[in-house]
Amino acid sequence: QSGYRRQPLWAGVLPAAPSGSTSLGSSATAALQPRLRYTHASIGETAMAVVQHDTEDRQPENGFVSPETTSPGLLTRIDGSVLPFLGGFGKYQKQLIVLTCIPALFIGFSQYSDYFLLAQPNNTCIQPLANLTNQSPGHSSLLGGPKNMSARPVHIYANRSSGTHNDTTGMQCKCSEWTFELHTGLVQNVVTKWSLVCDAAWKVHIAKFSLLVGSIFGYLVLGILADWFGRHKVLIMSVLFMLVFGLTVAFSVNVPMFSTLRFFEGFCLAGIVLSLYVLRIELCLPAWRFSMTMVASFVVLGGQLLMPGVAYLCRDWQVLQAVIICPLLLMLSYIWIFPESLRWLLATQQYCRSKWIMGQIAKINGVNMELDPDNILPELQRALQKKPKKTCIVKMVGTRNLWKNIVVLCVNSLTGYGIHHCFARSMMDPEAQEITMFHNFYVDYYTMAGIAVASCMALCPAVGLMGRRGGLLMFMIITALASLLQLGLLNLLWKYSDSSGTLNKNFSIAFSIIGMFSSHAVSNLSIFFCAEITPTVIRGGGVGLVLASAGFGMLTAPIMELHNQKGYFLHHIIFACCTLICIICILLLPETRYQPLPETLADGESYTRQPLLPPRKPGEQHLLLARSENSRDYTRVHDTAAATLFHSMKSMVCK
């Protein structure tokens, strides 16, 4: 009885009995109808079971593994349901945003400290080696003093002491006592303390390597830890070790100790930068994300602008290092006043901690939690028994779209920071490789800072009008044009123009400024874009990857300096080609403006590229897409099987 259908299944399906059929045929047919109904129901259920089995157990195509999908609930709709229920971008969020921006000032001090700690001074030999004192040709040049005019921003210029390979330079470096003159506001820095000139100049580049390499490893390692243990724990751990290693740097007794401690300082600095950046993004609603990120960027640039004044007041590099690090002691209070990211807790199903934080947010924002039209609290109460579920960045490899988006932004960040050094290197005087266009440390330094400030100011309206993808594409096109024109047009002017010297110099300065302006914008926007595309469960690892790529781009500057700028032209050509590749790859990215942040891998996978231009006829595009397997029409399976079986049984009865 349970296998039969109560409603008639043959209505409108079975044809009417022919007029010549006998009563026996009619009665036999009538007798067979219950059994046929049972068979029809069984066939339909079997067919649907096969379809369901085929849908669930289908093997992944092309070796990709589909991300885990969960039923969408209110707790996963953080931007659309949870944060608006807690007051949106209220007083609580604004207070925490301020707490993430204050340390950005001291982060700016640390990031630009190499300009002063490792600046090359003017040097004069006052005590040549004994075996050279009787050589009259060299004696006058030694006592006259080889002047080193390389007291400049360290990532722009080469070390002059090793820039000229001739006999005179070799004789000049054979000196036992030097006198130094710094133009950075300091009386003594690392170079003057241990006489890192001439044959010892390579140690300066190693010191620069140590901070950058430490930052690269910090972004990669601590980004993964931020996804696994939380942003707050990584922040506090990084601050504690930053205080230890940063203050110890000031008491270094030799260059190897200084370089080693700077590696760990860069490692911890990367953890602070990464965790604050991610926390800031996850606090904001879609309309506030970019503006709050740019506010923090301006605070970092404020640290860059104030750094010369701080160096002038400190006068000694050890005091300067201590002054840079000590304000981070205030961040120890973040252990109590700064909570874990609510978005990360909800995305990893840590609902017990989420419930307490939601109560604090509602209290500070003045929200009455009893008014809950969406029933968020009952759903949270039902989900309290769920176990935490954390994800590693490695699972990104099994996705189709997410890994592509992150890789494209990593290449953009690498290219932006790498080619920035190429433009900065072009600011050097082509006739005197050691002297800059401005011939003054402070003018050079503030020119670089002014270009960075102008770039960030231009980002705001550009992204507001064209979106993330449009703004990134525009600035990358400007970078590519400036690079190609500088490489090609200047050579033509030098070859065919009579006044090639002055014209070449002016065009070189113009293209360099434009290139640095646009490449700085590309780098900043690539990092922010990655933070919006990467899901919350792996956002730390994703942002860590793109920041590490930026570190590799910055690492090309000391590498070129270490080799005395050999291969500089090829270096510029390679990055110019990368800009052309990036222009094509940017078209593959989705647009994230005003979109909620993805929370799970499935959310990140759903971010796909939208067409730049809308289709002429919206209905035509659907015809070009293959229908998904889940949308196949199986409604006529029952009718076809039942009609075939009925006609077969009817013919047997008639016979």
TrEMBL record:
One of its GO terms (molecular function) is transmembrane transporter activity. PANTHER family: SOLUTE CARRIER FAMILY 22 MEMBER. Gene3D superfamilies: MFS general substrate transporter like domains (1.20.1250.20). It is found in: Membrane. Its main location: membrane. GO terms for cellular component: membrane. This is Major facilitator superfamily (MFS) profile domain-containing protein. It is a multi-pass membrane protein. The chain crosses the membrane at residues 209-229, 235-256, 263-281, 287-307, 319-337, 445-465, 472-494, 506-530, 537-557, 569-589. It holds the Pfam family Sugar_tr. Coiled coil: none annotated. Keywords: Membrane, Transmembrane, Transmembrane helix. InterPro entries: MFS_sugar_transport-like, MFS_trans_sf.
